[in-house]
Amino acid sequence: MTSCPVRTAVRLAALAGPLLLAACVVGPNYHRPALSTAASYGQTAVSPPAMPLGSGDGRRTQLVSGLNIPAQWWRIFHSAELDALVGEALKNSPTLEAAKQALRAAQEQVKAQQGAFYPSVSASLQPSHQAFAETLSSPLQSGNSIYNLTTTQVSVSYTPDLFGANRRAVESLVAQADQQRFELEAARLTLASNVVLAAIQDASLRAQIDETQAIIQEQRQTLASFRRQFQLGQVSKADLAAQEALVAQSQAALPPLEKAFRINRDLLSALMGRTPGEPLDVRFDLLSLTLPEQLPLSLPAQLVEHRPDVRIAEAELHAASAQVGVAVAARWPNLQIEDNAGSAALGLVPSFSSAANFWNVAATLTQPVFQGGTLLHRQRAAEAAYREAAAQYRATVVGAFQNTADVLHALWTDADALRADQVAETASRKSLDIARRQLGLGDVSPLMVLNAEESDHQAQLTLLQARASRYADVAALFQALGGGWWSSDTSASRPAGGS
Fold first, then answer.
1. Helices (H), 330-445
2. Cα dihedral 378, 380, 383, 389 sign
3. pLDDT tens, position by position, 408-438
4. Which end of the chain is less crowded, N or C, counting CB atoms within 10 A of the terminal residue's CB?
């Protein structure tokens, strides 16, 4: 009797084989939406009339279409401190850990749904203590009115996937797992980009603070000189007041910079998975950052393939397409095969004698006839959700091209701004030197020197900000192009399901 469930499973498998071979999969078959042949970043973004992106040190940095993006793209800045910081953030971030667990949960859901492809087997043991009225004839040879009965049973059930309902359900869950996979890649890219941008901001604010402090120190020395000259009658009270106002103005600019610097350090700590009270011994310098002579520019088809947000939207579209098949299959017949085998014996110990054995095999074919329109409207709702996902996918693709084009425009504009700021800083420094020499000769008034100093200080701060903006835009370019996750050797970076 113990081999009965095995023989039953064999019979079910033999029966299910032809059924599966004859089964079909209803609903639409998913295909990735075709990219418009007109999709591009715009000619002015790719190749503007201005000169190529200048690096600020005499080299010429150019965009190269189709150039591969490394997975650890932040290494192009050639900063060991930055590399270590990004690596630690990727290792310790709770946000990434949450995304990893969400992916694992989605993968387990796929495996759980795949279990419906196999027969379901369950075993039961039911001991009972029974009594019947003594006025009735005892069914036992002993004539007792109280007895024990133990029933053992093995049940095997199987639902052939005649019209692909389960296959579509698995397809939808695989697409959702792919969505979580790209959610993880998007979280990694966002985290790495935020760390790089925060590091650049750290270097920029530190440089601005140092420059402002140097300016204040220089202005205080000038103010002390003016006060001595005022006592000697060589400068007017108005000139002295103007210098005092200039010192006060520079001092007023320092607290906002220090505030922004401390807030940015707190951000760096948070990105590292630390609280603000934990030490963060790292220092960045704008002059220590470098850029390559070539920057990548993905082709339009590569952008759609590599951007995590586009792949997330595509996975959502794929899942919605499969759900249409699930809704359609629910309106078709459903076949369920069941087999029960067991034994009933007096006493608490199971007995498998031939006299006590029982078994049955049954098949149930169910065809929905009238559900008040429920199944029809569920199908229509699934079709509407698919069209919604398709529209959202198109919007995401358009947004991806817009974002990339905006970054390219910023790169070119910042290159022009950096060159202009370098020229302005050189000119203001030269103008200040001339004004100071003329003041020593008595050819100009102290007020003209003050104006030259103010222009020079502003030019220096503007140049620092321009350099930081340029580095930030380069980081934004790598983020816009997808960050190079496809170049990673980690298995978590490779899609598990179909595209």
1. 374-441
2. negative
3. 999 888 888 888 888 888 888 888 888 878 8
4. C
Is 216 a domain residue?
A: yes
Say what percent of the chain tops pLDDT 70: 86
**Does residue 13 belong to any structural domain of this protein?**
yes
What integer pLDDT is reported at residue 490 of this predicted model?
Answer: 57
Q: Which pLDDT band, with edges at 50, 70 and 90, does 9 fall under?
A: very low
Residues 382-394 have a mean pLDDT of 96
Q: For the residues 226-235, what does the mean pLDDT come to?
A: 81
Alpha helices in 115-236 (DSSP H): 165-231
As a whole number of Å, the CA-based R_g of the chain is 38
Q: Which ranges constitute the DSSP H helices of 272-307? A: 300-306
Q: Is 384 among the domain residues?
A: yes
- Which of the two residues, 448 and 94, has the higher pLDDT score? 94
What is the C-alpha to C-alpha distance for residues 284 and 115, in angstroms, rounded to an integer? 53
Q: Which domain holds residue 443?
A: 4-134+143-493
> Does residue 60 have a pLDDT over 70?
no
How many distinct structural domains can be found in the chain?
A: 1
Helix (H) or strand (E) holding 6: helix 4-22
Strand order across the beta sheet in which 357-366 lies: 120-131, 146-158, 334-346, 357-366
- If one compares 404 and 136, the residue with the highest pLDDT of the two is 404
- Whether 119 contacts 155, CB under 8 Å: no
Q: Among residues 321, 319, 382, 327, which one has the least CA distance to residue 175?
A: 319
Say which range, 44-53, 294-303, 390-399, has the weakest mean pLDDT. Answer: 44-53
Which residues touch 352 (CB under 8 Å, ≥6 apart)? 1, 2, 152, 343
What six digits make up the tokens of 349? 């110990």
Give the CB-side neighbour count of residue 268, counting CA atoms within 13 A: 27
DSSP structural state of residue 274? -
The verdict on residue 96 lying in a domain is yes
Tokens of 3: 């081999």
Q: At what angle do helices 237-271 and 165-231 cross, to 10 degrees?
A: 160
Nearest to 405 by CA among 41, 52, 53, 47: 41
Q: Which two tokens stand for residue 336?
A: 């369920």
Rounded to whole angstroms, the Cα distance separating 267 from 194 reads 9
pLDDT value at residue 321: 96
CATH number at residue 452: 1.20.1600.10
